[in-house]
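User: Here's a structure from my thesis project, written as structure tokens. My advisor, Dr. K., wants to see whether a designed sequence matches the one we expressed. Can you design one independently, without my sequence as a hint?
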């Protein structure tokens, strides 16, 4: 079953020197699976993810031949309809919890805010759902975390709080933007295990945005490789390390290898044809 269908997505920003295309002609389908999007910084990964929730604001604009979520035309939907989709049905975990969590609000208040304001849930029920969400992402002593401020949490715990916040409404689609980039390897593995269990047990669709090709190869089902706003290659995750496009091969060759050559890592020689 296709949950999300995107055809010829374009994201353009109007600047003083003319329009700049951040995303150029991206097309893909997403079922209830794990889709990875990889590429260098500036390749258009995050802009693609934010477009799904129509979070691009002027001077940026979104255009597409088709962009449908569960049969709903995202581009034609009113802002009221989009607010009904964001959170309850489509959610996005931003890259760094330090910039996503309000520093002057306790964690519990932030977890309950959407339930109280949007869903008109009572305080006792909202508190119970927030604690259950923290338990779901394997946070020990959730009652203590509910009373904490964001600066009192480690990076890994902050990321788990962000995931819990997005999962409280039980969305059908979760977009995770670099959810493990600031975490050490052990915590990274725990967060991926949580996401994997949520996709498997809840039947969600997941778009996993990352620059870590080896991580995506292990975790995702399919991978889109982006370069300068375009998808240059789509490959099954299990075959990512054997990808054929020279850009993907170049990214893989830039990765350090345990036991490998101790000399400088090779640079990436870009070809103008890749951007066309």
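Assistant: Designed independently from the structure alone:
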């Amino acid at each position: 079953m296709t949950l999300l269908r995107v055809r010829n997505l374009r994201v353009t920003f109007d600047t003083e020197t003319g329009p700049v295309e951040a995303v150029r002609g991206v097309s893909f389908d997403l079922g209830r699976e794990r889709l990875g999007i990889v590429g260098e910084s500036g390749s258009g990964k995050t802009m693609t993810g934010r477009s799904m929730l129509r979070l691009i604001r002027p001077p940026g604009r979104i255009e597409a031949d088709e962009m449908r979520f569960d049969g709903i035309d995202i581009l034609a939907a009113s802002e009221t309809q989009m607010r009904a989709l964001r959170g309850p049905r489509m959610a996005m975990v931003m890259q760094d919890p330090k910039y996503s969590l309000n520093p002057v609000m306790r964690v519990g208040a932030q977890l309950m805010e959407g339930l109280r304001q949007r869903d008109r849930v009572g305080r006792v029920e909202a508190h119970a759902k927030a604690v259950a969400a923290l338990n779901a992402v394997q946070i020990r002593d959730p009652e203590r975390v509910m009373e904490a401020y964001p600066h009192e949490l480690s990076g890994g715990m902050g990321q788990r709080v962000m995931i819990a916040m997005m999962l409280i409404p039980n969305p059908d689609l979760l977009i995770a933007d670099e959810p493990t980039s600031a975490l050490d390897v052990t915590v990274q593995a725990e967060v991926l295990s949580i996401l994997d269990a949520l996709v498997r047990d809840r039947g969600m669709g997941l778009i996993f945005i990352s620059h870590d090709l080896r991580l995506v190869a292990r975790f995702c089902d399919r991978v889109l490789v982006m370069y300068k706003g375009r998808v240059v290659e789509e490959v099954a995750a299990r075959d990512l390390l054997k990808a054929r496009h020279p850009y993907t091969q170049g990214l893989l060759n830039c990765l350090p290898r345990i036991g490998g050559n101790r000399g400088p890592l090779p640079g990436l020689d870009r070809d103008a044809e890749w951007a066309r």
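When you compare it with your expressed construct, this may help: DSSP finds ten helices and eleven strands in the chain.
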